Amino acid sequence: MTGRSVTGADWTHANLSEARQDLKAEISRTDTKVALLLAFTGTVLAGVLAAAATIDVVLPALVVAGVACGVLAGAAMVLLTAVRPHLGGDDRASFPYWARLTTEQITAAMRDDRRADVVRVLSGIAVRKYCVLQRAVDLIRLAVLLLVLAAVLVAVVEGL
């Protein structure tokens, strides 16, 4: 240690910078998860539709599989809201706000420490993305259960 004491302002500076970087990483992770779930959902949906078109499926199983496809399509729509950009607001801490300013206004705005505002805005973005991701995962789980039920119905009818 250099003998210099750490002040509250030093911790605030370090914590704000770290929080901003952590939030950017969280948002990036949600975007990666959304991309993977969109690919998974699309693949399962295509597989179910291809299977339904090529095999002789009993009506109850077809109905359940159809509902599952509807739920998967709903999950995909929910996932798309996670990657849809939000370009409104007057938060004074994001590029949509800065895009409406003149060069002089941007320079003036950058004189103030806006990291706390940026942390607030990024936190809101991260929470919204995670809430959407949570809803989509719940829908995908429901669809998988429905597809299992459809498979059981096919197996039971074929076994009779």
From TrEMBL:
The protein's name in its UniProt record: Integral membrane plasmid transfer protein
InterPro entries given in the database record: PycTM_dom
Keywords: Antiviral defense, Cell membrane, Membrane, Nucleotide-binding, Transmembrane, Transmembrane helix
Main localization of the protein described in the UniProt heading: membrane
Keyword Cytoplasm on entry: no
Localisation per UniProt entry: Cell membrane
Gene Ontology cellular-component annotations: plasma membrane
Domain Pycsar effector protein: 16-154
GO molecular function: nucleotide binding
Source domain of life: Bacteria
Listed transmembrane segments: 34-55, 61-83, 139-157
GO BP terms, alphabetized: defense response to virus
Species: Wenjunlia vitaminophila (Streptomyces vitaminophilus)
One Pfam family of this chain: PycTM
